[in-house]
């Protein structure tokens, strides 16, 4: 549901307090429902009836600071919150960044980012942990609601929970604490690590206490036109040819230059043509033959450069060559390929790509992900499954329920592999590969793709891959796409909203993603923009899955040209015509920055990314930002250089613009870059090296 949808009746104002609290908004001072109607934007901001549910303690345990500005904020349009608060140093942290202050200010690590949430979940106890996690923030008890109650409450219930309930704490909505505990993060449900059995889906499925998830995603359109709908490659698509590619590992097969060289079957070739692909991207040129040769692969290529097809096409080709049998209805399915990705939207996108390329074959891809009815996932699987696209929690749930057997897995793909192997999902992935029935690594092909691959994660990844795996680097590990014009603006937290409005007004109706740090802030900023008459929707982990999907639809269709998002939307999402990314808050890591700005400038198209750099909170990013900017040949502000160079321990030993500052971390290859002894390393440039990114 978009925030501007007239059918939307309740919007979250999670920042006010219960009855009697001095900061509680009164309904006369908060009546944006009327004001928005009068502006023709529908009833977007109706104050919820149960105002006693608002508790600002949940936000930061600093009620006075938490509530004051919020109230002001919602009555004063653009100025809400910020002006008044800025004059009062004591309220510094609260209202400014959208009225609730940043996670930094609150000092609550779990609150700080959704990413952090998911990590916490990853290591937390199952069941209790989910509730506890949320409860830790809001002090919630177990759910009061069952599925029926949930349904009775109708669609707005979900919205209220997503938008108002959840972590902000609603005593009356305590049940959300439990659900939110597993749904509130930016990613899929993950079970606590350290348990020998998988029960991650129990809560989702309603096997245990807690409300069931009832959402059944609508089936995607299945007419040929919809299946093959695609956007045009951009003017810089041919520039891909100039990017240096490096392959390390023993005996890599030579790259291919055209689709024809891949010798794919006719149906696949037809599908490739219908998808509008006429030329390979560099990651495809190198990865396709490697996968076709049966090798394990870790591939790192910049955002939007076609990594999905780079693994899907050769896997499908293998399956076709092997004469794969059509998969029929069975209680337990044994897919030949499992693809995992960290977010629901991303895995759904991968599934749609798989469906496109498998069109007209007997290969049946299936997608399952959290936030949807478990029975729906089971039904999808039972109808037949060759390629299972899944988020980790739902996957493990299905395995645990014996709906998915692993015996026949030949291909295991970790998309956004660095994310899949970090603290959040790493333990789950380890369990997946050691789960009874899963073929050991020498009996399956394991493929990992991402735009970023921190060295520590590379080492971990080695445990999942055969020792002689190949490592393909297109451009630089973790490099930003040079088709994104990056600007860094020094903006303090008090001026961010005003700056954002200026930018959005100057942008007009061009599609823009605005990234913020927390789920609450996403709601707040989205609402703020709606009040400013900018058609906006939001996506984050506290929204119902239905709402998340609707938000994406509204954004894709242009109904809401602005999407406010947390890091849940940072990775992988491929949305046509996203011309701008605004980092309202910079992420904590440079890798996240690279993924976020990669939502624009995809597939040879150009895009712009503007990031607000707050001297107080973002200085630690100065040095890595400087490197990312200069490597992508972007203008570096002098002030940023100064901060970067003055940072304690600043290290600029790596020359700016150097290629392959970080590559294959395997000891065997360290220090031997450029050597080609025994075929250990090969450096390739698909165009002249002089034209490279360097
Ligand atoms: N060879 C090609 N020709 C034309 N379009 C392509 C080609 N390869 C991929 N694309 C399109 O480019 C877009 C980006 O591809 P994809 O989503 O696979 O990028 P990615 O490298 O996985 O990005 P990210 O790192 O953000 O996940 C998609 O719309 C895809 O259909």
Automatic annotation (TrEMBL):
It catalyses: ATP + H2O = ADP + phosphate + H(+). Residues 119-128 have a biased composition (Basic residues). GO terms for molecular function: ATP binding; hydrolase activity; nucleic acid binding; RNA helicase activity. Residues 60-185, 671-694 are annotated as: Disordered. Residues 107-118 have a biased composition (Basic and acidic residues). Residues 257-285 form the DEAD-box RNA helicase Q domain. Residues 288-471 form the Helicase ATP-binding domain. CDD domains: DEADc_DDX4 (cd18052), SF2_C_DEAD (cd18787). PANTHER family: ATP-DEPENDENT RNA HELICASE DBP3 (PTHR47958). This is RNA helicase. It comes from Alligator mississippiensis. The gene is DDX4.
